[in-house]
Amino acid sequence: MSRQQQIALISQKLPESDSFNETSLPSEQNVRVPGDDSDPQEPDLTIALNRIEWVSAFETLAQAFEEEKGVQVKIVVISGYEDYTSTLESFAASNEFPDLLLVNGPEEAASWSHRLTDLSNEPWASKTEIGLLDEKQQVIGFPIDLAAKGLIYNKTLLDQAGIDPAMITNRPAWEAALQAVEKKKKQLGILAPISLALHDGGQFSWSTNKTFLNIYLSSGLAYENTQLIDLLLSGQVEMPRLEHFADFLDLLFRYSDQELLLHGSYQEQLRTFSQGQAVFTVGSSDLDPSLQAAGVTFECGFLPFGAYPLDTNGIFAESTGWLVLDRSGHNSDLAKDFLASLANQEIYQDILAQDANVLPAFQKNSQVLDQPLLRDLLGWKQGGRIYGMHQDQLTPDYGAAFWGPLFEQLAVKEITSRQFAEQAAKAIAEQAVIQQVS
Asked: Domain 149-317+389-437 adopts which CATH fold?
């Protein structure tokens, strides 16, 4: 059976005329659904995922593992969150649950917590800080990738401004760098030092501003340190640190193009940066394809959010997908072997890097990374300079509706950075009381 035929794709929406066991997919693709016994050859290992952009990589990984172990691997690809959950429930009901399952975060994993294996004693688990943890702090998920979010710089423009990016690691250094760039705006041909938009599609850009929150929650702390978010959720803050955070936000806002900051979109933010009209922007390590498509030729990389008087020489990064193991499956040892191959064998890591365009969590070889931001991220990782991202541990009560007004008032100068910190601390304490009462 060909690899093409082993890919099972369940569409998010089927045509009304089709039954559950039939789709309008090309005839050469074999679509497998719960209860379908058309495949006479049972696979030795089944892996389910809902990341369409990773299908090609996992297909090649399966081929490599088949050749290594002499087994058959089936990749089950399910598109759409609702279909993913309901289809997996159907698999479980028919005793066909996959051996390995891709989850995109702790909430997805929690749906299957009663089925998941504790992987804490696997050799790879002690070699990474980004494994997925359950409520008992047991490792239940193997991290596929490492993705960064933070401040991105144009090295060509920084060089022209006479600034060494390696020196921008604290609050005084950031202010000095931004002042120097501001004075050379005309010489550099830029609109402003920073390209940043607080809104996208007319709405407050919660994605970008969640990244900012990690400046307070985790910058400069050990990856697994959740002390500050634990305090926040209990209604408490570390006031000096919160004040430094607010002051640094104010600094970034002041040196941003004001029209773009208050009225622009995220696409305009990226366009401004890619056209060399700003030295800095805020983004993630998956921007490489967009920057390349825009014709960017300048070297770029990440910089620390150096919000504090002392150096914080690291960047924010996290995994975006984990493989979890069904403990009731009959192929647990083989599934663990697959994870070990992903962790230890360079050929598997290179497949992920090249076919999925990600930085694999255990990647060691920089030669296969042809995307500048991913290469730069690998350098930060190898230097042990990675800070955690805890924003997704915030409850909905601390979402965009909570933080948005404060960010916007600071940006339009309706409040000072000190007032931002004071109002945030007061609102956090009040929210904790409300939660206790309810």
From this structure: D-Maltodextrin-Binding Protein; domain 2 (3.40.190)
